[in-house]
Design a protein that fits this description.
Blueprint (H helix, E strand, L loop, with lengths): L1 H32 L1 H16 L17
Length: 67
């Protein structure tokens, strides 16, 4: 009976590891897929923050993120 219990615990660990690998793969694919839109959004935020007077004067156009 102990062998059956040990095998079930081992299977649960393997299933947990496989689930983590799948979740990490999905997150990695999403990060690669959305990279351009995230960089564009971040560039817009950084332009607004770096402007001397965000409401009255336009942000500088020469601000670029390193890619």
């Amino acid at each position: 009976m102990k062998e059956v219990k040990n095998n079930s615990e081992g299977q649960a660990v393997v299933e947990y590891i496989l689930m983590l690998v799948m979740v990490m793969s999905v997150v990695a694919v999403m990060a690669i897929g959305f990279r351009k839109s995230i960089l564009s959004l971040w560039e817009t935020f950084s332009r607004e923050v770096s402007a001397a007077c965000p409401r009255d004067c336009p942000p500088k156009d020469n601000l670029r993120l390193r890619r």
